[in-house]
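Exam revision sheet. Question 4 asks you to relate a sequence to its structure. Input first:
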Amino acid sequence: MTRDIRMKGFTGTTSLEEALAVIRDRVKPLPPEEIALDGAVGRVVASDVRSAVDIPAFARSAVDGYACRAEDTFGAGPFDAIELKVAFEVLAGKKPPRPLGRGEAARVMTGAPVPDGSDSVVMFEHVEARDASIRLVQALPPGKNVITRGEDVKKDEVVAPRGRRVRADDLGLLTSIRAGTLRVHRRPTIIIYSSGNELVRADSATQGDVEIVDSNGPMLAALALHEGIAATRGGILRDDRTLIADALRSAKADVIVTTGAASTGKEDWMPVLLSELGELWVHGVSIRPAHPIGFGRLGERLVFLLPGNPVAAFVGFRYFVRPALNLLGGIPVAEAFAPERTRRAVLAKKIQSVIGRTDFTRVRFLEDGRVEPIRTGGASALTTLTRAAGIVTVPRDLEGLEEGTEVEVDLL
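Answer key, structure tokens:
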């Protein structure tokens, strides 16, 4: 069997935009599931959540003070004080004993319900308190210091729209409407394999002069964990066609990520086997680093073939695997592909590139806030990542970015 036949499905070199479009068009959210609220942070709402109640459920005081009728205070001034009788007290969590009558006030605490008949609250420090009455020297507008029923949330209002990633504040609001459970998209599972005869585990007792410690496996698992997914480590695969094929077939996860054996060398079996066993959508993207990246599908599982060089594996995960995980988890398309954190900065030195290729350039910040590219030793030098503060993308239609250009830095 010739190499060309084994590489059936190889599509050559694709632009970054075309490759990402394949992911955008073919990766769909996983089915929804119902979960308890305490596990909902970071998950994506699968259908609109509407409140069954008003929040607050009653009109309440925003301050410690006296509830009264605003109209009873009209005309009050420094030389024409108005006196109101203090009829009763209302504490938080207690119901008023009766409606408030004309010319009366009720002592209320923050969060306590205001009595029927009252429509404003004057703060303690703004009145002159006597034994059983208060004197006001300033009129109150209706609604002063009163939080009305449904002011925060009205019944039937959408409080968590479909596609929203749940935050801690959402959890508080959902709890306040007594949601109990939440329908969210299932979080994808992921398994990570490292590939190569030269690889050994860091704790291996037999490290020879030509062996390389597998740093990609732990790094990629950590990147997955940053996305809220505890990845399964599939271990190190030797450059054996049968062994790799068995691993791919038996992998139990929504996403399979491999690193190494992704190019077109003699023992680069990953794209060959994915093409034979499933679908190889893309192999080879006009980017630097991570040019040999490939991805496709094996049954219902997405498969990403990342290069073995650590920086290339990092870039491949960040700009290809991460958006796919977001889409599977229900994140809307625009957010799924967007950087997590960015910062605008000015280039202190030119970034070199070539037309037709998108470059992901590692940069560091200078003391004056500008950025400069880190001198690289190739995609195998992890220190170019650990010394970097972010990545600047050079579009494929430019030969580079000149000194003084304002750029967007994808912060690491």
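Marking note for examiners. The mean pLDDT is 93.
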